[in-house]
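Record 1 of the preview.
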Amino acid sequence: MLNIEPIKLLSGSHGDTAQTGSGCFMNVIAYLNGEPQITDESPCVCRSIRKPAIWINDFLNDSERHLLLPFVQRAMGTATDDEVVLRQRSEVVLEYIRDLTALADRFKPNRSAAGSAALSLHLAEMAMSYSNAPSKSVALMGQLAANAADYAARVSNGAADRKALVDRSLAFMDSVCPAADTPSRLLIERANRLLELATTRVE
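->
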C-alpha cells in the first residue's frame, strides 16, 4: 500500500497537482497514474467509482478528507470492460443507493420523491433490470449514486445524520474498491514526488 498519508486532499478539482502536490481524490490519482493532464476524470478509475468518489471527496470537510487516502491506490486501475466485474460493482452501487434512500427517508420522512434519492434508486433499479451490458449503464449507476448522496446530504440535519452519511459512503468505497496490488517502482516514485511537493509547500 502506498504511504501518501501526509498528502492533503482538497475539495473541488485542481489541475495544478503536479506543481502543488495537493488536489482532490481524482486529481491525485491522475498524477500518480502519470497522466499528461490532471483532471477528475482519470480513465484508470472505473466509471462506477468516479462520481461517487468525487462527491464523497467534496462532502468531507478538511479534517475528514484524509479518510479517503487509503482508497487512492485501491481505485487506481479499476477501469475494466469485464461485464462480470462491472455487474458486481453495479450491484454494490445499487446497494449504496438503497441505503442512501433509507437514510434520506430517516433524515426527512415523507419528503416528496421527485428529484430525490428515491428517484435515483428507481432509475438505478431500472438500469440494472433492463441492461444486459453493464458497460453501458455503469457510468449512469455512478452518477445516480452521487445524486442520491447529494440529496441525502441536503435533507440531513445535525452531526448524527452527517456521520451516518460519511460512514456509509466510506463503507461503499471499501466495498467497491478491490484490495491494492503491490505498487510498482514507478508508482512509488510518483508518490514520493507528490509527498515532496506537498511537504515543500507546507514548509
